[in-house]
Amino acid sequence: MAKVELKQPIVQAIAEDVKDAASVVLVDYRGLTVAQDTELRKQLRDAGIVYKVCKNTMMKRAFEGTELAALEEHLEGPSAIAISKDDATAPARILCKFAKDAKALELKAGVIEGAVYDVDGLTELSKIPSREELLAKLLGSMQSPITNLARVLNQIAEQGGAGNCEAAAPAEEAAVEEAASAEEAATEETPAE
Fold first, then answer.
1. Given the DSSP bridges, would you call strands 106-112 and 79-84 parallel, antiparallel or unpaired?
2. Domains of the chain, first to last
3. For 79-124, how does the pLDDT look when each residue is reduced to its tens digit (9 = 90+)?
4. pTM reported for the whole predicted model
5. Facing residues of 52 across strands?
6. Under 8 Å CB-to-CB from 86, ≥6 apart: which residues?
7. Residues 6 or more apart in contact with residue 131 via CB below 8 angstroms
8. CB 26 within 8 A of CB 71
9. CA 17 → CA 20, 67, 148, 155, 191, distances in Å?
């Protein structure tokens, strides 16, 4: 069997992994300890991200004819690939956060929703919160006015409720009527003088 035939299933596996991917990020993993690599793989797996160490030539063949072909220039030295089909910013977010503690991990480049990003671009994208965090913030801002209204209504109820407000209203009306009749009496007395 020729070498090309042996390598074809590997290329197909990579091509299948990156097919319909929301994002693909390349990293240089040299210098990571076994414990760090294990922890990184665990974090990526928990987020539903496929993480593989592949030969650059295999990735080049798998990327041919796709939008990922732009990553070919970054395929130098040992490379690992992080692939997410759901959350486009998850690989960049997890890898950048991990790279802060593990200085040996270096991001190379990535393709996120069809756009190619360098290390600076990936770093900026990593600052975008996850979909769940954004939905939680949206829900919180939608609930805020309702919560404030509930607090105000609760305070009114604690201070005696609307009954006190209605009881005060007739007393105020009586005072206003007395003042009006006093004015009428004053105006009637003035012409008589």
1. unpaired
2. 3-128 (3.30.70.1730), 133-188 (no CATH)
3. 899 998 888 888 888 998 888 888 888 888 888 888 888 888 888 8
4. 0.65
5. 81
6. 22, 48
7. 87
8. yes
9. 8, 14, 48, 57, 101
